[in-house]
Write a structure and sequence with these properties.
Layout lengths: L19 E12 L2 E12 L3 E6 L5 H8 L7 E6 L2 E2 L5 H8 L2 E4 L11 H12 L4 H14 L16 H12 L6 E5 L7 H18 L2 E5 L3 H6 L3 E6 L2 E6 L1 H6 L3 H8 L1 H6 L5
Parallel strand pairs: 3-8, 3-9, 6-7, 7-8
Antiparallel strand pairs: 1-2, 1-4, 4-5, 9-10
The structure holds adenosine-5'-triphosphate.
């Protein structure tokens, strides 16, 4: 891979232009005859929290998995950090994987491992570290996500829903990624837990300069945590921008989603 572009915490490239860390163009993904995405374009900018919305089964998870290289595309380009992923050899792909952190729906922790061991799974795969250093790093990640030290030796089954999410986030952060993918991170949390998790994501974005790609149905997260929102419908991204762009859209799905009583009741006073 070529040298990284100069990183700026405010998402600016060195020439002052915002930098797209993920650039998807004309993407088509199909399973047999079933076309999931066709002609999809999307940019994810460095340092932003991008909320990704769309009706159930529209392809939000498939898009995430396609960007991560887990699903084959039948057309289009995906550039990550300025490089076309099709041009990368195996070694470069592995290097790229280390710059991603992924938190799957429901946390997806290994139930037979402790929290600490879960956090150490990616470290063991990619880094050659002594057991003492592995422990030290896992404890740092625990602190980063606001979990107490005594959570380290617990099994996932001993944790509350909110703690499981935090442990899964700690694992996603284990290799100090530049981009984290979060699949419905606040689903199943009560409103207080969800708001605390959003706060945590915003703090990590500020302190680590993280870029966050967050699939979510949570209106509060969209309103309070996301810098921009991208909406998936009709097999492509139909709108992308701040909340005001979503509210101004004439697309029937967006009108129903953001114009419904539930959405309006939660809308921040400024809109
Ligand atoms: N491996 C696969 N083989 C065949 N079809 C698949 C595969 N993975 C996903 N699909 C189909 O692709 C479509 C999009 O699925 P996806 O999980 O991305 O939806 P989603 O937008 O994330 O939905 P939800 O909000 O309900 O999680 C669905 O119809 C699903 O059945």
């Amino acid at each position: 891979m070529s040298a990284d572009p100069v990183q700026r915490p405010n998402g600016q490239h060195h020439d002052g232009e915002p930098e797209a860390v993920i650039r998807v163009r004309d993407l088509r993904v199909a399973f047999g005859d079933k076309v999931i995405m066709d002609g999809l374009d999307l940019d994810v900018m460095r340092g932003e929290i991008l909320g990704f919305v769309g009706g159930s089964g529209q392809g939000k998870s498939v898009l995430t998995r396609t960007i991560l290289g887990l699903v084959r595309k039948s057309r289009g380009t995906i550039e990550v950090f300025g490089e076309d992923v099709d041009d990368l050899d195996l070694a470069a792909k592995r290097t790229l994987e280390r710059r991603f952190g992924v938190m799957f729906q429901q946390g997806a922790l290994f139930s037979a491992l402790t929290v600490k061991q879960n956090i150490q799974v990616p470290m063991r795969e990619y880094l050659k570290l002594s057991p003492a250093l592995l422990d030290e790093m896992a404890m740092l990640k625990l602190e980063m996500v606001g979990l107490p030290h005594d959570a380290a030796d617990k099994a996932p089954s001993e944790l509350s829903g909110g703690m499981i999410k935090r442990a899964a986030l700690a694992r996603a952060l284990s290799l100090d990624p530049e981009i984290v993918f979060l699949d419905e991170p606040t689903s199943g949390l009560d409103p207080i837990g969800a708001a605390e998790f959003d706060e945590l994501i915003m703090t990590l974005k500020q302190t680590l300069g993280l870029t966050v790609f967050m699939v979510t149905h949570d209106l509060d997260s969209l309103y309070s945590a996301c810098d921009r929102i991208a909406a998936l419908a009709d097999k492509r991204v139909i709108a992308v921008g701040p909340l005001s762009t979503m509210l101004a859209s004439d697309h029937p799905w967006l009108k129903a989603y953001f114009g419904g009583e539930r959405a309006k009741a939660r809308l921040p006073a400024s809109h």
